[in-house]
Amino acid sequence: MTTTAADPSPVAAALAGLPRVVDLLAARAEEHDRDATFPYQGIEAVHEAGLLTLTVAQRYGGPGGTLADTVRVLAQLGRGDASVAVVTAFTLLQHAEQARRALWPAAGYRRLLTESRRGPALVNTLRAEPGGRPGVLPGTVARRDGDGWRLTGRKTYCTGAEALAWMAVTARTDEPEPRVGTFLVRGESEGLEVDPVWDQLGLRASASHDVVLDAVRVPGELALGLTAARGSEGGKDAPAAGERAVEAELARAWHDLALSAVAVGVARAAQAWLVRFLNQRTPADPTEPPGALPRHRCALGEIEAQLIGAEELVEGLAARVDRGEREAVVRTGPAHLLATRAATAAVQQAVALAGAPGLSRRHPLERYLRDVLGSRVHLAPEEAVLESAGRAALERGARP
Tell me: the pLDDT tens digits for 57-80? Predict the structure, then answer.
């Protein structure tokens, strides 16, 4: 069926509302940053535009937005309010994963979609724990309680914590041979408490607080993907383990490019402010604005080049991931690192060009700097990313 301007696709209709949403977010971003308050109105605006459920699969009645659509939306939201963008990102990632794997039970996901029609229904996966390290079993424990489970533990860096409708909590069972899985927890569950510890340099409105679970009841059907803590070597479980590994890489690719897009969006907002600033005439020279100086144009060109490179990298890889290209999936970790570096360098250069006004709380540029620096909390450790990329290069070089 051909889509016309009078009958846009659900994705096109959602994207059409982006400019208005971005303006609304930008109008309140400074206030929420200053007070570290959660941007409920901003999330409501994202929801009303149909952007919060962009990645709900068509078979569930959703738009079926792709990764390319997702990075486009998040880059624009990042221009308005980075905190709203990252909260939105994690909900979009949840719906995208359900579109690929249908991991949620049918009844549970129908409930989430019903809530999403009534208002914003935020979801996030809670993995990180205080002092947690890769390869170590989760400290959060699930104990049998009749036909369900009781979860006890603490999760940290829980983006959107105070407003989450659902939390997908990773935990290990207390069985003699522990299993690890994801437990779907309602945000208002008895025994669940949000500890408001988030007080960071940037992304201050993202409410990435700790979540404390004290014997929180989870029905048995909401315990997902429980597998042995140590996978078997070969045997009948090998194909399933291989599928899980492929899905984990794909989920990471979505995460990497989605959060990259937010950082690049913040940098674009910083560049836009700088352009306006450089086009203003000053009392010292009422005839020509600072932007007329060749050195300022060259510096602005450097920022533009950095952001073009980051955008082409993120958008190009997103399209390739959507096409199912395996090589693109494994490149998203380094891409996240490079895009974040480029975005950070662009904003830092904008601050240097602006001088003292760029660091004033009267202007948003210093907030953009803090937000782009804060975005590193979602980036894997640089050493791990680079070590993995280096190992892959060595393996390629060793092939005949």
Answer: 999 999 999 999 999 999 999 999
